[in-house]
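Wait, can you check?
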Amino acid sequence: MAIRRAGFALLLTLGLCTAAQTSEPTLGQAELERRAEAAARYLVATETAEGRFFYEFDFLRSHFTPDDNIVRQAGAGFVLNQFYFLSGKPGFAEPSARSIAYYEAQSIAVGAGLLLSEDETLAGGRAGAAALALLAELFHSRAIGSDFRPDLRQAWLRGLAAQQLPDGGIAQVPGEATADSYATGETWLALAHYIDLAPDAAEVAAMLERLEAGVMAKYLAVPDRMFAHWGMMAAAQRLATTGEDRYRDFLERFAANYVEALMPSTDSGSNTCAALEGVIAAAAALERHGVPDLAATLRGRIDTDLPHNLGLQLTGDSTRLEFGPGQYYEDPKLKNLTGAFRNGAYVLRSRVDSTQHCLSALLLYRQLIEGAAGWKM
């Protein structure tokens, strides 16, 4: 299967190139790129020789915990490969490829394909992890301009097909008969990028048709926070690829309700980068496709919440961390965590998905504010 080279073209397919400026950006280009690269370098620094990422650093214990989650592992590799593609920095080629090799090693047979597994058992299989691993491979192929591991791409796709239910949703674990909101949203995003890269992939088109026929109506009727950010990113990608009004209409209705009723608040100090991913993608798509008023509302929420999340990133070589009025944590190891994002302002932990989602939000925000300028580092 041929891979379409897509440097600036990807920005067009994401629907972000012609987004109008409605306000001054929270961060300038240079600062955005510095922070994004710091986050990406942190992921690389915490990647093992086998391609697994250290999962969570506990500040009070001053070490990484033994916990793990295969879906979050795959999410980290997806965003690292996306950063490699968008930045073009050759130093990220090997680490991003290594993550994909780890996902291959963690894959088990399901149906005619593969799913990633927590413990290499069927019960540990996770569709969401396969979807995110698939995204990692797609972005790596885009980065190198040719097929990287088309065998794995096909195997993970068929593993996801084995998890698709009659209503179009995706069951997370083999044998389950109920769709999982996370797995469904993650799979929709993976299929949206797959069909953009390979528009003649009939198997992908059939899965998308089944998924979208039921899922879009379902989550408009009963919005779901677990689906939200993945679903908005997926719908934005589908709108960019097809130009079909139904994706714009979905984003308009879903995003308006999400920011009004469902989007988590930063008042508790929580890391809300996952929520921002979807809102940023929706804002860019709606600006480009003629819904400026709602796009401006979304921009307002982005400009409010992004600075809070940026405050959770460990920067510089400081060994002291403020985590509440008159409270601080001091540790020489903090210098080794530069670029990581904490789980929250009052939480002395940094988990891999906190950094993953914030790096993703920065990549989307960078494209939103710079548009056709591309990613120049």
User: Anything to note?
Assistant: The CA atoms of residues 143 and 308 lie 31 Å apart. The longest helix spans residues 202-221.
